[in-house]
User: Fold this.
Amino acid sequence: MPAHDVLIIGAGLAGQRAALAAAQTGASVAIMSKVHPVRSHSVAAAGGINAAISVDDDWHSHAYDTVKGSDFLGDQDAIEIMCSEAPKEVMDLEHMGVTFHRNEAGEMDLRAFGGASMKRTAYVADITGQALLHVLYEQLMRHHETVERYEEWFTTSLLKDDAGHCCGVIAREVRSGRMEAFTAKNVILACGGAGQAYKPTTNGLIVTGDGIAMAYRAGAPLMDMEMVQYHPTCLLETGILITEGARGEGAHLLNSDGERFMEKSAPNKMELASRDVVSRAEQIEINEGRGVGPDGAGIYLDVTVVPRKRTLEALREIVNLGRDFAGVDITREPIMIRPGQHYIMGGVKTDVDGRTPIEGLYAAGEVACVSVHGGNRLGANSLLDTLIFGRRAGEHAAHRAATMGMPSVDTRPHLREDSAMIDAIIAREDGNGSNRRVSEIKNELGEVMNKHAAVFRDEAGLQGALETIGRLKVQAASAWIDDRGTVFNQDVLGAIELGYMVDCAEATVVAAIERKESRGAQFRTDFPERNDEEWLKHIDITLDENGEPQVSYSPVTITQWQPEERKY
Amino acid sequence: MAETHKPPEKFTLRLRRYDPEAGEAPYWDEHTIELEPHRSVLEAILQAKDRFDGSIGVRCSCRQAICGSCGIRVNGEPALACHTHLDAAKRSAKDGVIEIEPMGNMPVLKDLIVDMDAVHWKKIQRVTPWLIAKQPVPEREYIVSKESMVDVTQTMGCIQCGACVSDCLAMEVDPGFIGPAALAKAYRFVGDPRDDEHEVRLRDLAEDPQGIYDCTHCFKCVEACPKDVNPMGQIMRLRRIAGNDFDIVDQNNGERHEATMVGLIRDYGLLHEAEMVPRSYGGNSWFGKFHPAAGKELLSSLPIVIKGVLRRKVNIKIAIFGHKIAKQDLKGVQAIYDKVEGRKERYELNLYITGEDEPTQDAAAVPLAAAQSSTEGSAS
Assistant:
């Protein structure tokens, strides 16, 4: 049975960064992912990574922008750590080989991004996430002797010992269908968000809330789950993301009257206000009949105002996306976009070293909630979050591993339990039509979330969503699949993922009902104002013994920036 | 916008299925789905999977051609499923049915899923795929030219989908060929001024008989690549840098062969066949004609030459004395040479580097009447 000091679940940026950091201390490290690491969804992050590396910049300014962007719900101690460590982290990545674009002097070039008070986003054209991910994978290949890789292994549950400490996982090798128990002194969850609980979403099909749900089921609290980011620029039809870098380079948003409507809600920052503000402004235009395209459900993003040469050099990917997925040459004509589900600020509650309240269990990246993003994440802060807290979690877990022996736990009952769970899914029948297909339930879940837990929310809609989710939860437990095989049985994994997504959706809706105010990405039409007196606090969701979500609160850490009115 | 917003249509997919557990040979499976014609082949496969048969095996995630998971063959050509429109796929189908198969040159594990570790990733590992950073490492970033980073971005843009590997003809003949994706990855380091081992890398890849000179220049990878990485172009750049900047000798004589051809056209305006072999072995001198290797090569070429003469493909007189073109045409050819060779730096084409900005009137001619009229009216 494999045993490791540090076992990382998920091989996107947070996971790979954690693996490298842990390996550097000499710990025995393994990284496990249900897909090949370079397929991880970090690959889709386009615009860049924030760091106060310019000589005129100061990390305090970056931190303040982040606090303000979070609508003062972010924990300022964690934000200070992230922003102060950012410049060194970005330099370390540059030294590893990331091909950051340069200015005429040969130094790293920086571009403007939403909610930032100056240009501080380092970038590689508009494939920054891809460049970072591939370079980290180069490092994993380089250090193949110290970092074991389990590629295409699907984690089914977390193991806990009698003391309640996390001590490993059960996983299934996708290629062979073999089930295996892995013992570990520490497990780091780094397996991303839960965007697939929404339809449409910018997130890949693999982003199904696995880590959030596994931790939640193991007893870890989730935090800020109501805070779901809608990105302002997704292709109208397919929901594919158009990077904020487009607006960073100067692109405009226009309504059907050709008006730059952002001047109404953000006269200073215009299109570069924070994402919650821009998405709301767009949704208002659409709701009030000033949208464009079929049913007036879109907004124009006009990139033609950016010099064409610059667009081709720095926004190459979205030129291709426009051409291939919307039939539009964005250098010549505006493209139709709309807000779309993009990121969840919430996740497994951790401290600044990635520790969850379960001893031995860490989390980093989108799966986690430190919370550095609070009510709304700034563009180009997510790559930073993954790297800083991935590294910190890796280091901390490795040091903890050095102080302890390998847990001895009888994993056989757990292994049998998970094997039986999978066999039972494979054996499910359609019950003469009374049971539903996994894909049907997933679609309904996504649609209900996108309708009621989106840019604008209210009590009635959320309660209706909660009811639907309750029904879907029951149906998911009997949903049937076609594939009876063991080799690459993606069907059975889809059924497990559906269960993960339903849990995440439920936590989101429960938290959204609980927060009776409007802050960051949560806008309640029935409580349209921010209410610091009552709601300047985090909402934590824990699973109780009956499998029901329980709500509690934790304070927001404020160090140097008192809440103030938020204007862009 | 012309392409979008058409009503859904029916499309039939013919999927190549393989179940390794069944102990049976691969077979074809047909499904008819309904989608708008500009939707992707991946969406079609997923609809078939969702509605009819969840056991169809296909790797996929991002749906936007960035994760590189869904490399397949559509109507016999390598492609990313998410990056291929249904209407285009239907047009290129033999009988109106879109034929979908797993990629080539890699073992099939199940349905459309191939073993990329056994081929693709093994080859990537062959090229020392990480930066060997110049020492000392600076405190801040390495100061390098803007152009160099934009340049390597083209190869950084490779999403490791394997489409080029799937249809590499050289690899089909010689499975040991390092191949287009891995060699493009090698360029990503050779083109990176921060890397300290350009020469070591190039020598390694030039001296390996399955390295950069094993490419047969067939352009398949260029056509296959969904991200315009131009792998063959990167291989050719590796060759040029190896030969021109580091004097690494191509053991197949290909580089001198190329130089000879270029030189002959400069001198005569057209190819001079009789001079090709002697010059590429012996250099551009009268004595070169008697280089032993040239004689040997000439001798081994004789049967082909004779065959050519017999089939009237080669005119003996022209072959020996060379083609003649009009003087002003020759001058024209030489003017091209003067211009290209007169450049201070080698000119490399790169996707991310384009010409000058177009005149602003072009940008103003945006076909959005509303935007034009209202920016004056409402922006205040």
The first helix of chain B runs from residue 41 to 51.
